[in-house]
Known about the structure:
The chain has 171 residues and is mostly helical. It has two domains: 1-49, no CATH class; 59-164, no CATH class. It contains six helices and four strands.
Amino acid sequence: MFLADAAVFRMRGLGWIMKGHIPVARGTAAVTRAFHHAAAELAGGAAVLVYPEGRIGLDPGLWPERGKTGAARLAQASGAPVVPVAQWGAHELVPYAAPRGAPRALARSLRRRPVVRVHFGPPVPVTGTPRQATDAITAALAAALAPLRPDEPDLPRHVDPTRPPPMGPPR
């Protein structure tokens, strides 16, 4: 089950795929409902996938940015462990700016047959304040991602020119 921006649930072609997942309408009271829904699912033993940044990352090297505290607060509220999952290669399937042309971008990239690799790291202790726990989660994600990118010390092989540059310090 994913926590995702409510706008994704309204996208043509994606809305039906997101059925059964948890929409997060940022800046509204629905955020609290989404949090409690996710915490209840976690307490009941479900797996809930959360991108700690709360959005698609903007780092040009595609490294995790400083996360928001939601994943840590969910873990602390539910007692669920945080297992960092790093994936590498999805950016070669559909570039950042492709949502409008996603079907064409996906078809074009599938001809190149990109490889998507996934790494599951060890559970991260969720202790201290939510900010401290979030920083530990972000560090664990970067550590889990590093082995997937051994040939890319500074920048990824594929730099997505459509990805906007970061705007100031991580949020």
